[in-house]
């Protein structure tokens, strides 16, 4: 796999190895990363900084088990809008930004306009979210909801750890 930064410099196998380590645990000390990839801590730091500056590393975060903080269910919602002008698309996107339960939203091709992943506590919570938030957004013509029964795979990147 080849990735090129903004200056046209190729990210090499050591860069990708560093990314894999950070994906597994972003708190891994530089000394451990360096030892694992055969580089000094300074070289690792410089590579991480270059990947960050190039936008390949967007930030550091924690993974949360949503069920353990009360969000037992995930719902996939497909939405069709009544109009596709830029103003309607922008307003819909901004409205989704204001709903904390919306985890991901994609403008898609096909029969629906949007694919949205929502975290909810249970079916009653989802019904409340529909009435009080989602269906309050102007322009929705049609929606289809599917509760996730089981997550078979969930990755943030195709790089394997």
UniProtKB/TrEMBL annotation:
Top-level lineage group: Bacteria
SUPFAM superfamilies: Dimeric alpha+beta barrel (SSF54909), Winged helix' DNA-binding domain (SSF46785)
Every HTH asnC-type domain range: 11-72
InterPro entries: AsnC-type_HTH_dom, Dimeric_a/b-barrel, Tscrpt_reg_AsnC-like, Tscrpt_reg_AsnC/Lrp_C, Tscrpt_reg_HTH_AsnC-type_CS, WH-like_DNA-bd_sf, WH_DNA-bd_sf
Entry keywords, A to Z: DNA-binding, Transcription, Transcription regulation
Keyword Hydrolase: no
Spans through the membrane: none
Name assigned to this protein: Lrp/AsnC family transcriptional regulator
Species this protein is from: Massilia agilis
């Amino acid at each position: 796999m080849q990735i090129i930064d903004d200056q046209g410099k190729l990210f090499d196998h050591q860069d990708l190895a560093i990314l894999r380590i950070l994906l597994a645990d972003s708190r891994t000390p530089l000394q451990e990363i360096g030892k694992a990839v055969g580089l000094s801590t300074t070289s690792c730091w410089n590579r991480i900084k270059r990947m960050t500056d190039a936008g390949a590393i967007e930030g550091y975060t924690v993974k949360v088990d949503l069920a353990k903080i009360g969000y037992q269910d995930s719902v996939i919602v497909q939405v069709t809008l009544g109009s596709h002008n830029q103003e309607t698309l922008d307003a819909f996107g901004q409205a989704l930004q204001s709903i904390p339960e919306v985890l991901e939203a994609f403008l898609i091709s096909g029969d629906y306009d949007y694919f949205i992943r929502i975290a909810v506590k249970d079916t009653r919570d989802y019904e409340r979210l529909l009435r009080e938030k989602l269906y309050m957004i102007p322009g929705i013509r049609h929606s289809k909801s599917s509760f996730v029964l089981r997550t078979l795979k969930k990755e943030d990147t195709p790089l394997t750890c």
